[in-house]
Design goal:
By secondary structure, this protein is an alpha/beta fold. The strands form nine sheets. It has a seven-stranded mixed sheet with strand order 15-14-16-17-24-23-22, sandwiched between helices. It has a five-stranded parallel sheet with strand order 4-3-5-6-33, with helices on both faces. The chain has a five-stranded mixed sheet with strand order 25-32-31-27-28, with no helix packed on it. The protein is built from 15 helices and 34 strands.
Length: 672
């Protein structure tokens, strides 16, 4: 034990005052004579003995009161266990990801508690200590060392960021700090709720020898959260007459069931539907909202609900893009009458063009979503090369053979499976379509299988593995699709070969093929931990030139890394610029798309690392310390004792007050 003010021990001279008072009692006594003093002498002896004992107890109380009072003013303390060490710089990492908005108590969030703990720790260091604050937004993290006062100002201005940095990113930022000499050991305090996905593979982790790691976990009051797990359209195409059910999946991570969760769907700022859902504990609930055909080309949709105290993921954003037209081109044999002109004659829905093989603009032909090759008798290498490139870049081909059987070898090379000539003379009935095949989802309103199917006489036979959408009754494929989106029909569209072009099933099948030609790259939403963000841009690709695409949200405008595709754009924006909501895509000053971004699903899961794992790490590694406290006051007491020593002045002060109380009680209740 040591003393901050040992010179005050001179105050012990005050002990002479009560001693002097008790030794020199100047009270005068009168002698009273009585005739019989026998009993008075006995009473005098008893009274004198009790009075002396009382005086000694009062004297002892006063002496002890003065002694402990002086001892308190000398400020005794136990020396600090770490205060005399040579110290390097001090780094604080405060997790300001959205999960830190959870409740620590009724009055505090996890982030607010983390701020209090960092302030308490920083105040335990000497006044000349320099600090550096790191948070999940590295662009806003302190680039230089700060004083304790400056650190406090930065903490009060710290806001939530929509993403979480991994532990390895934080460690590397500290280890590679060039502002610090290599011979100094750095102190890194990690204040976080320690979500598991940000602290992966700690069992295999090897600490950096230049860092002392202090893990300070902050546990939430409760870990229950409701969030949107996913949304998807059961039919990914928006065509007139098709049902468009929107499937919404809600997840409950807590231990309590959620009853009658009110869910709202707004589209383009207008409330579209409301519904209620029960979500069991640690499970998922699903609800379906039927969408009518959307009129706007770009539809910004928001799913909202109330979930307290975690509110950062109460809104879920997604977009439904309805292209104004499906672009379809046909390359047909010269003089051939085509049924597709009438089939795709709806100019509000389709942009259809038909080219004869003796007069074709290849650049215009392959600018479509779907290219139909109808009845071409021969293919030169140039056409085959362009067809192959179109398919490999995501375009959809529909191959219809000629009546001369001369296209089988060309089709085989394009499709990647054996296709041979077929010499069948009789027409065969087609089998009913397999309703379990996703291609036919929503195509048939009832399950009546009594309707008559078309008949056909094949001129080619498809071998190997083929995904047959329609087959003959004998099992041979009539309409097949390969893995990269090339459709092949076994018969020419002549009346002598098949009547399918006049059958009711032909229109929905061709509409479905046209609609699916646009679904190769489109997504309804993205999450912040996605690497690529894909946006459909359609015909704007060809007019972009060297002008970059820009993302705008409120007052923010960024030019992300971008890779234009055939009718879509791949974006890779810097994560520091992202936030939940809609980022509008602009080319010059014209909006051509919308990017819906949501928080990472991992952030909403609220899966925390086990505290026992941190304790094991501290036991295993010399430079790793597990600091578990229940409050900021506990943190302050622990680090003050460690850095400044443990003050003991209040204990002798309390004892001094106790002896003063003893004196008062003796004088009040001890009667002579």
């Amino acid at each position: 034990m040591q003393f901050l003010s040992p010179h005050l021990f001179w105050g012990l001279l005050a002990l002479l005052i009560p001693i002097a008072v008790h030794l020199f009692n100047f009270r005068r006594h009168k002698t009273v004579l009585f005739s019989n003093t026998k009993f008075l002498k006995l009473l005098e002896q008893q009274t004198k003995t009790g009075s002396q004992l009382k005086h000694f107890l009062v004297l002892a109380s006063r002496l002890l009161f003065i002694f402990f009072l002086v001892l308190a003013f000398t400020e005794p303390f136990l020396p600090a266990s770490e205060g005399d060490k040579d110290r390097g710089p001090v780094y604080f990492y405060l997790d300001n990801s959205p999960s830190m908005s959870n409740e620590f108590s009724l009055e505090k969030t996890l982030k607010e508690e983390g701020i209090d703990r960092i302030l308490q720790i920083s105040q335990s260091y000497p006044i000349n200590t320099r600090f550096k604050l790191i948070n999940n937004d590295f662009l806003q993290s302190s680039p230089a060392f700060r004083s304790g006062t400056e650190l406090e100002e930065m903490l009060t201005e710290l806001r939530y960021t929509p993403f979480q940095k991994s532990f390895s990113d934080i460690e590397n930022r500290v280890a590679k700090d060039e502002r610090v000499g290599r011979d100094l050991v750095k102190e890194l305090f990690i204040v976080s709720d320690f979500q598991a996905y940000a602290f992966e593979n700690l069992n295999e982790w090897i600490p950096d020898s230049s860092i002392n790691y202090h893990f300070l976990p902050i546990s939430p009051n409760q870990a229950q959260n409701i969030f949107v797990d996913t949304v998807f359209l059961e039919n990914k195409y928006l065509l007139p007459g098709n049902a468009n059910p929107l499937q919404i999946v809600i997840k409950n991570t807590g231990l309590d069931d959620v009853k009658d969760l009110s869910i709202r769907l707004t589209i383009n700022g207008v409330q579209f539907a409301t519904t209620a859902l029960d979500v069991p504990a640690q499970s998922k609930g699903e609800v379906v909202v039927n969408l009518e055909t959307l009129q706007d080309p770009i539809n910004e949709c928001v799913i909202s609900f109330e979930d307290y105290p975690i509110i950062f993921d109460n809104d879920f954003y997604f977009t439904i893009v309805r292209d104004s037209k499906f672009k379809i081109n046909e390359l047909r044999l010269a003089g051939l009458k085509s049924p597709f002109s009438a089939l795709f004659g709806n100019e509000d829905l389709f942009d259809f063009n038909s080219f004869e093989d003796n007069n074709v603009d290849f650049q215009a032909l392959f600018s479509a979503d779907l290219v139909i090759i109808n009845g071409i008798e021969s293919f030169d290498d140039r056409i085959l090369g362009k067809l192959r490139t179109f398919a490999q870049e995501g375009g959809t081909l529909f191959l219809i053979p000629s009546s001369e059987n001369s296209s089988s070898s060309a089709f085989s090379g394009l499709v990647g499976m054996p296709i041979s000539e077929e010499t069948m003379e009789e027409k065969l009935d087609l089998a009913l379509p397999d309703r379990q095949n996703p291609f036919f989802d929503g195509m048939f309103e009832n399950k009546d299988d009594r309707f008559q199917m078309p008949i056909a006489r094949p001129v080619i036979r498809m071998g190997g593995r083929s995904n047959a959408l329609l087959s003959f009754n004998n099992g041979l494929p009539f309409l097949s699709k390969n893995d990269i989106g090339i459709y092949v029909m076994a018969s020419p569209l002549f009346r002598d070969y098949t009547d399918i072009a006049n059958h009711a099933i032909f229109l929905p099948i061709m509409y479905r093929i046209a609609a699916q030609s646009k679904q190769l790259e489109e997504k309804l939403y993205h999450r912040m931990d996605d690497r690529n963000f894909n946006v459909a841009i359609g015909s704007f690709t060809s007019t972009a030139g060297s002008e970059p695409y820009r993302l705008r949200k409120d007052d923010l405008e960024v030019i992300p890394e971008q890779y234009p595709g055939r009718d879509y754009l791949v974006l890779r924006p810097e994560s520091e610029f992202l936030s939940a909501g809609f980022f509008r895509l602009y080319l010059k000053d014209e909006q051509i798309g919308s990017l819906a971004i949501n928080h990472s699903k991992k952030e909403s899961e609220l899966k925390m690392i086990e505290l026992e794992e941190l304790a094991i790490l501290a036991d295993r590694h010399e430079r790793v310390f597990f600091e578990q406290f229940n409050s900021a006051s506990e943190t302050a007491a622990s680090f003050q004792a460690r850095m400044q020593g443990l003050p003991l002045w209040k204990y002798p002060f309390i004892v001094a007050l106790l002896f003063l109380l003893v004196e008062i009680l003796i004088l009040k209740f001890w009667r002579k």
